[in-house]
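ugh finaly. both done.
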Amino acid sequence: MGGSREGDLGAIRRPRRDRRTSGAPPFGRSASAGRWEPFAGAVVLSVVIATLANVTTPTAPSGPGATPGSGSDPRRELGADLRRWAAGGDGAVGAVGIGVVRVLERHGFGSVESGQLLAGTSGGDVSGLLYRGALDDTARPLVTSVAGGTARVEQAHVAETPAVAAGLACAGGATLLGHTLPADAASALGEALEAARPVALLATVDGAHALVLTGPELDDVHGSLGDATTQDEAVTAARGLLRRGATATEQVTAAGTDVLVDLWVPVPSVVVVGEGALGEALHGQARLLGWTSRTVTGLDEARAAVQAFTDADVVVLLDHDPAFDAMLLDGLRHGRGFLGALGSRRTQSARRERLLAAGVTESGLEQIHGPVGLDLGARTPAETAVSIVAQVIALRAGRSASALAASGGRIGG
């Protein structure tokens, strides 16, 4: 890894079958629901929206010489550490300074997921991980330094050999922002992370102001960004991105101020309604992606699952029984999650007529993805499962699902 240097703020560029479940991926290699984008401007906000699934995953390295591997969910561990630090260990809130390091911009490394966050105290404690520990040489000293009260931007560069050794695809570099986090905001952030609930961290790039949003819809505000108009617009934008249900990093503009949005959402839960080879293939894809999944076969169970959906959840209806129209109607009324239905053109047409007769509008029908999946020319259950999860990923990311070579946007999140 190369050395680091302080950056110029103004120079940053904008840029169940049998109710079985599958697990979620480690924080070190990161999940959807957690990518930080470049941004510019005299004052820039950094918005981190974190939602974590209630799962157990391997722990990321947290000490000298540690490597990604075994242990419990490191996001929850990070949350517990933040809460403990915010309480000062002895109940004295704010007894220690708390800092965080986040990625403003990156180049290289291959496909790297969002949600990179390192936290630490002025006393030298550090929790969390950036890019599987590849940036530790720069990030760990930075987080303990900024916990003392002075925000900084630094550049970190990782050569090919250490990058690959850490599990990244190739060499790369990143612009890192380190800033303090007030004790009350750190406590709110830590509590949400530990409990695997939605949470958003917003901070001006100069480190002068920070706030945390908590609650299912990010309605609870802890702290302030200083300027009311900027804060209102940034918070509204963050809540809007949460509705997409996908972990993402995007830039938004709030009252003329560029804003960096780092969004973590829940790990998707896939409900397969019906049984068969395709259902098995969908479970396999879910496991590969770190999503949870289960199969249900009864109408009541299917309706209950959809009624409890979050924006990140997915239902794939394999059963052609018209009785399951009731489940789709529940999903449309609920307005959350991905509703997919398998079936031939004839089956889709018959379902469409039934739903129209039940009072569903044309715009409502557009919320049901049927036939579900992208047109990949899939012929086998395994290939069809790929086409279905590919459609889910594209919609969650707000992408067109076109070939990368035909697009000019950022590769990956």
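ok and the 2nd:
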Amino acid sequence: MGNHNCFSTENLQDTYKLSMMQWYVGVEKEVQKLGFYVNVRSDHLHKQNFIQLYQIVKPQYEEIVTLSTTESLFATEFENIKRSKKTMDPFKEFHVTTLIQDNDSSLQQFEKQVLQQLSTLNGCLLEIFQYFRQTQLPNCSNQLDTFILKFRDSFVQILIHYYDLNLFASINKCNFLNTSSLQCLVSNMIFNDQVASHIYQIKKQEQKEENQKIHNKLSLFKDKTLADFGISIKYCLDCTTREYIQSKLLSKVNTCTQSSQIIIKDTFETLIIEDVDSIQLPSRPQVKLLQGTFFQQSPFQYAIEALKLIQFRQTPHHKVKQLITCFRFIYFAIIDYYNYYTKQPSIISTDEMIPIFHYVLCKSSLQNPYTHFEIMQKYLGNLDGVEGFYLAIMESSFNIA
């Protein structure tokens, strides 16, 4: 049956009386910081909203599993992905810290209900948000960032006081309900079409020179091969990678028969170029010719397509979710290639990932990349997780000469 019998009507009434007699004090304090004129104490819907949230109780059988920060660090991504195929989704933490409102399949029913309640505005919460909507947005990027972030952080505190979310999180053991996730939720509420478009246009105009500089650098690599980007032969996913893998496998084989079986197993030569000898590995000139042509398109094509979509995502958290998807496709491409040879790839270092992402960025033709980068960086809030690693890699790729 779960925990539901712990919250009878009487219990809810008592919880409300004990915890919420002075709920409006914290809310009024934040409203005053914003300079808004809203009569918080006249909210007759507060009790109804409070009880509706506390009636959402996590069933005991529904354990919400998230990875700790140390488990989801960049250096362990390969291990996370390999484990995910057998146990759990290693990217669950990303979905939690980038809370979205499009029925993400990774969210438990309990989480969805909580987020739905918190994002449903009425009473004084609606008045506060309407006041924000009616305020003229600044036309300077720095002032705009300050204004948006100030409102976001204040509204997070307003939700915490309004619902006594510390108590709710404690009762239901909601690890996903924290300041960082609430910042994500409120940001998604803020970034409607008008606000998202205004922020993008202001930043794009101010960063015109920076974006042009990046485009000029990327254009120099437009027709370059994977090897020209300085990508390790371990991750080019072409003949050089095959040669690298086979050298590792052959070093473990003691007989010629076993060695020949490994070579015969490779049927991918026929997918590259017809005149490549099906037995001999390509010579170095051929390797140069074949760089990046293994899949008849880029081996990282899915990552390239994913990165392109960042420019069509409205909120900073949808943008970073798209960035995470891009990196996932990079990892999957490498893992799938190595799995064909029944060998596990080594962990990719940050230095090895930067040229791969640089290649993906160049081939994606992403418009105004620096503007999208800054929107994610400015409005994500907590950058201690894997999102921060990916943004750091993105920024590093901008600086490659």
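summary for the 2nd one i guess: Residues 4-64+108-190 form one domain.
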